[in-house]
């Protein structure tokens, strides 16, 4: 899989409705995972969207989620740029450069869904998400 760069939007409980709207606008295939799907089936946030991805016939990719439990949602900061793929060395290199001089909110490490994932804000204030599919660490 090639590394991809795309916008990642966050919502406060309306990610499903927003992504269904964007699907109506752009067409394509929408994949959705809830917090309940990934290990919290009985929790109060089980139906909230942990991750969704819309891939359109024209090549657009849009990702979104509801903010995780305990995190604040603020308009104007409800986006990130996502880097994802399976090239461990390439993505770790991007992570090192993006996080240098910035701040790390989620360390780049193995997550409950199996990927290595991290979140940082670069020194210019742009939020980034890096997801390494199938990484071993």
Question: What does this 3D model show about the protein?
Answer:
The protein is of the alpha+beta class. The chain has helices at residues 15-26, 88-99, and strands at 4-11, 29-34, 49-55, 61-66, 79-85, 103-110, 116-121, 127-132. It has a single domain, classed as 2,3-Dihydroxybiphenyl 1,2-Dioxygenase, domain 1. A hairpin with a 5-residue loop joins β3 and β4. The two termini are 19 Å apart.
Quick structural overview:
The protein has helices at 15-26, 88-99; strands at 4-11, 29-34, 49-55, 61-66, 79-85, 103-110, 116-121, 127-132. With 137 residues, the chain is of the alpha+beta class.
CATH class: Alpha Beta
Beta-strand content: 35-45%
Number of domains: 1
Going by helix content, strand content and strand pairing, the class is: alpha+beta
Tell me about the largest β-sheet: 8 strands, mixed
Helix content: 10-25%
Regions with little confidence, pLDDT below 50 for 5+ residues: none
The best one-word shape is: globular
- What name goes with the CATH superfamily? 2,3-Dihydroxybiphenyl 1,2-Dioxygenase, domain 1
The CATH topology assignment is 2,3-Dihydroxybiphenyl 1,2-Dioxygenase, domain 1
How many helices? The count is 2
CATH architectural type: Roll
Strand tally is: 8
What is the N-to-C order of secondary-structure elements (H for helix, E for strand)?
A: EHEEEEHEEE
The CA-CA distance between the termini, in Å, is: 19 Å
Q: Taking all residues together, what is the mean pLDDT? A: 88
Radius of gyration: 15 Å
Strand neighbour order, sheet with most strands: 2-3-4-1-5-8-7-6
